[in-house]
Design goal:
The complex is a heterotrimer of chains A (about 240), B (about 375) and C (about 220).
Chain A: H1 3-25, H2 28-34, H3 36-69, H4 77-89, H5 92-103, H6 107-131, H7 135-143, H8 148-182, H9 191-200, H10 203-231
Helix pairs in contact in A: 2-10, 3-6, 3-8, 3-10, 4-6, 5-6, 6-8, 7-8, 8-10, 9-10
Chain B: E1 2-9, E2 19-26, E3 31-35, H1 42-49, E4 57-62, E5 65-66, H2 72-77, E6 79-83, H3 94-104, H4 109-122, H5 127-130, H6 140-152, E7 158-162, H7 170-187, E8 190-195, H8 198-204, E9 207-212, E10 215-220, H9 222-227, H10 232-238, H11 242-247, H12 252-255, E11 262-264, H13 269-279, E12 283-287, E13 293-298, H14 299-302, H15 309-312, E14 319-320, H16 326-335, E15 340-344, E16 350-355, H17 356-369
Parallel strand pairs in B: 3-8, 3-9, 6-7, 7-8, 11-12, 14-15
Antiparallel strand pairs in B: 1-2, 1-4, 4-5, 9-10, 12-13, 15-16
Helix pairs in contact in B: 3-4, 3-6
Chain C: H1 4-15, H2 17-49, H3 53-68, H4 71-83, H5 91-115, H6 119-127, H7 132-165, H8 175-183, H9 187-215
Helix pairs in contact in C: 1-9, 2-5, 2-7, 3-5, 5-7, 6-7, 7-9, 8-9
Classes of the chains: A mainly alpha (about 240), B alpha/beta (about 375), C mainly alpha (about 220).
Chain lengths: ~240, ~375, ~220
């Protein structure tokens, strides 16, 4: 092993040690033990919110992106992408706030806000991915006598898959990052522990929410990265 | 002047030297083409001159001073460098690209700008149009012209060119080669020119250095390399048509004999026959009052006839200029099914004959001397 | 159709101009300072790692892990730590969070721009006798600048959202309208905050896009 790898390994071990010491000294571990029931209950709610809103966003977003690239809508393509890009700059807290002012308090506005926040990157990437398929591939497929539907399924979607997946990954990162805020409009989840902790200046409760939230977010991102790696076929996957 | 003495390079993690004890001297103002297949060490040899690659052993001198005694950065500023990928900086205009080294050297800005315009003029690029353009607004050929100008902007005595015209389409390549040769007549740089194209080497080089597996196998003038390849590798590399390539090196003007026989319209046919027999010619050119070639008569046609040449001549199917090379001349002869051509200057004045026989004896001369 | 709620909101906005302006100022102060500092750290890091693939992988991995952590969770983790120096809530944790989140877009864009520079340009510059500092200033940075600016832009837009959440830890800014609006169930403040922060993000995006075009050499434009 060369010096460089040793440097990183030692650094990592040091970081783990410092983290452990801090976790103990700050009262994180005892507090997490105390709040364990809350953590598991709210954690489940947290995951459900993310999974449900994310799934709906994918189910709606990908077909919507495909439809917007069809010849009938192609002339709106540029405008649609611009609108989506501007939409994506709107902060998620603002999206949740607007959702609350429309739908009130509870699960529905939380789900709706998360759905809207995740939808834009999926639609945008689906469109961008399909538009980026080289025209000669489309032409070759048409020349071989494939019907438009076959061109979509056999050529366009497979070649756009990596970019679509990248959009899903971005969307889920935004989604999981926003779920803790859902508590504010009555959606529950681990945000409840964080915000309660902040209000009461209670570090233990704060960390009981924050640390699992952070770990969940990282795990979801890793999971989607793995799915992207394995589900996108090797021929069109720049990572493989 | 560039001199390499016993220069070798062995790259780390290899044992076979990439360049093996190369000794070579390029006289001032000459173009030396380093020629060989890929991986033969020609590019490595060139890059050791400006120390983009440091030699493992041996020494390189530029105008008598060892390159090792320079700071590498100073050294490179004193050597022009042209690469195949051109490498114009896309963020800079043509003018900024050309003036970069003069600016770094602290030249007066007005002076270097004026020089940039002058250089563009010399390369046939209108300064008013091109100074403010960006590289992406130029064609490939124009880009490489600017690449060459950038290399000579600070007036370095030595120029390194790494397959400079290799990425340019064949038609443009010919004209940019011609332009460079024309410029070289004015600027007289000492040039190391890497190429893998024997035709380009024959055209550009005063001397050719042929490399094989890191060794310099032959270093000589193009004509000598084509006429006397040192070994089978060189003769294979220069090609089976190497003798035809030699024809490119000789101009028609050099091949014609002085005081060529000729007749006038008012001369009698007997006079023409007598001249032809005296010189051993099958044909003779008829010239006008100011020496312009007007036509010809053939020995077999006019022997025994009476009358003047003016009543019996035939028109010349074609002529050739003195600055054309013999390869073109021979090709023209074959095209018109003739064994000779009349050489005329730009005013049509008759200069002499090129014949297949004279070409053959010229090519053979070098072997008779040897 | 204009409902009475819409009229209320409009009225609220019109009568609270100075407050909106001062909170916008606070918001910009957090994001601009933190992204500014992030440029000073991220660009040199991105340049440094462009020479070394393995450290680049490690740094980019760490930075992308960092950006995955939800901002409110990051605040929750930072508060106990920063409390040790008495800065658990307020301006400092907000700036630190924005600084950390800005690293990935800036480092990643700097890195990819630097490593995508045509090797022929580096070779030409070296062969012409430019020192490594001259190569950086004359050639590499000007060519990489548009992509680096795109990273700064991403960081800025993303962190306008993060700074809004920082209102929950007492950092002020436009997020304060939203926090009050939610806790007091007051749609006027809620919508005002949401609109203001969205407009700020969109405007910042446009402004930085303009700046990005301005610093791009005409020779590099498409």
């Amino acid at each position: 092993m060369d010096g460089f790898a040793r440097f990183w390994r030692n650094g990592l071990m040091l970081a783990v040690f410092v983290l452990g010491a801090w976790a103990w000294a700050s009262g994180l571990l005892p507090a997490m033990a105390d709040n364990w029931d809350d953590i598991t209950y709210l954690g489940q709610q947290h995951v459900q919110l993310a999974a449900l809103s994310g799934a709906i966003a994918i189910i709606v977003g990908v077909p919507l992106g495909v439809v917007l690239t069809r010849p009938r809508f192609a002339r709106f393509g540029d405008v649609a992408l611009q609108v989506l890009n501007i939409g994506a700059t709107i902060p998620t807290l603002a999206v949740l706030a607007l959702s609350m002012s429309l739908l009130g308090i509870g699960d529905t506005p939380a789900l709706f806000g998360l759905f809207v926040a995740s939808l834009l990157p999926i639609v945008a990437n689906t469109m961008a991915g399909i538009r980026a398929v080289p025209p000669h591939l489309r032409e070759a497929a048409r020349g071989m006598g494939l019907a438009p539907r076959q061109v979509l399924w056999q050529v366009e979607l497979p070649n756009a898959l990596f970019v679509i997946f990248a959009g899903i990954r971005t969307a889920m990162a935004i989604n999981v990052g926003t779920v803790p805020l859902a508590y504010l409009i009555g959606g529950g989840g681990l945000g409840e522990l964080i915000f309660t902790g902040i209000d009461l200046n209670d570090f233990g409760t704060m960390l009981s929410g924050a640390v699992p939230t952070a770990i969940l977010a990282i795990l979801v991102d890793l999971l989607i990265a793995q799915l992207q790696f394995w589900l996108v076929p090797r021929g069109v996957n720049p990572l493989r | 002047m560039i001199r390499l003495e016993q220069v070798s390079k062995t790259f780390p993690s290899t044992t076979v030297p990439a360049v093996d004890r190369v000794t070579l001297e390029v006289p001032e103002g000459e173009i030396c083409v380093l020629l060989g297949p890929s991986g033969c060490g020609k590019t490595t040899t060139m890059k050791m001159v400006n120390r983009l690659i440091e030699p493992s052993s041996g020494e390189i001198f530029i105008n008598g001073r060892s390159t090792a005694s320079y700071d590498p950065v100073e050294l490179r500023r004193a050597i022009g460098y042209v690469i195949q990928q051109i490498g114009l900086f896309p963020n800079k205009t043509v003018e900024q690209n050309i003036c970069l080294v003069p600016d770094i050297l602290g030249w007066d800005a007005a002076k270097s700008r004026a020089r940039a315009a002058e250089l563009l003029e010399m390369a046939g690029l209108e300064p008013a149009t091109f100074l403010r353009r960006y590289p992406k607004e130029l064609s490939g050929g124009q880009q490489q012209r600017v690449g060459v100008l950038r290399a000579i902007a600070a007036d370095p005595p030595v120029l390194l060119m790494d397959e400079p015209f290799g990425a340019i389409d064949p038609i443009n390549r010919t004209s940019i080669q011609d332009e460079f040769l024309r410029m070289q007549k004015q600027i007289k740089k000492t040039v190391l020119f890497v190429s893998h194209d024997i035709d380009e080497a024959v055209k550009m080089a005063d001397r050719i250095a042929i490399f094989r597996e890191g060794r310099l196998v032959q270093y000589d003038t193009p004509d000598n390399i084509l006429a006397h390849p040192a070994d089978n590798f060189v003769s294979d590399f220069v090609g089976g048509d190497r003798t035809l390539k030699r024809l490119q090196l000789i101009t028609v003007g050099d091949a014609i004999q002085p005081d060529a026989p000729r007749v006038r319209a008012e001369d009698s046919l007997e006079r023409a026959v007598q001249l032809m027999e005296q010189h051993g010619h099958q044909s003779i050119v008829m010239v006008g009052p100011r020496g312009r070639a007007r036509g010809y008569v053939e020995l077999a046609q006019v022997r025994g006839l009476k009358g003047t040449v003016g009543k019996n001549y035939e028109a010349l199917p074609t002529t050739i200029r003195p600055n054309e090379n013999l390869r073109t001349a021979v090709s023209t002869m074959f095209r018109h099914d003739m064994s000779w051509l009349a050489c005329v200057d730009e005013n049509g004045v008759f200069k002499g004959y090129v014949t297949l026989r004279s070409v053959r004896s010229l090519l053979a001369e070098t072997y008779r001397d040897a | 159709m204009v409902s009475s709620i819409d009229m209320d909101i409009l009225q609220y906005i019109l009568s609270n101009g100075p407050l909106i302006a001062s909170r916008t100022g606070e918001h910009i102060a957090i994001v601009a300072v933190a992204v500014g500092v992030a440029v000073l750290t991220g660009v040199p890091i991105g340049i440094a790692i462009s020479q070394h693939k393995r450290s680049a992988d490690a740094v980019l991995y760490a930075a992308s892990m960092m950006i995955t952590v939800p901002s409110i969770a990051l605040f929750g983790i930072m508060i106990p730590v920063l409390s040790l120096i008495g800065q658990g809530i307020g301006y400092l944790p907000a700036v630190i969070a924005v600084l950390l989140y800005s690293q990935l877009p800036i480092i990643r864009n700097t890195y990819s721009a630097m490593s995508n520079i045509d090797p022929a340009l580096r070779e030409a510059a070296r062969g012409m006798g430019l020192t490594s500092l001259q190569r950086l200033w004359q050639v590499e940075l000007p060519i990489a600048l548009p992509v680096i600016m795109a990273g700064v832009r991403q960081a800025m837009v993303m962190n306008i959202g993060v700074a809004a959440i920082a209102a929950y830890i007492g950092a002020g800014g436009l997020g304060a309208f939203i926090t009050r609006g939610i806790s007091q169930t007051d749609p006027r403040q809620l919508v005002t905050g949401a609109l203001a922060v969205s407009i700020l993000a969109v405007l910042a995006d446009f402004a930085l896009l303009g700046l990005q075009r301005l610093v791009t050499s005409p020779g590099l434009r498409q």
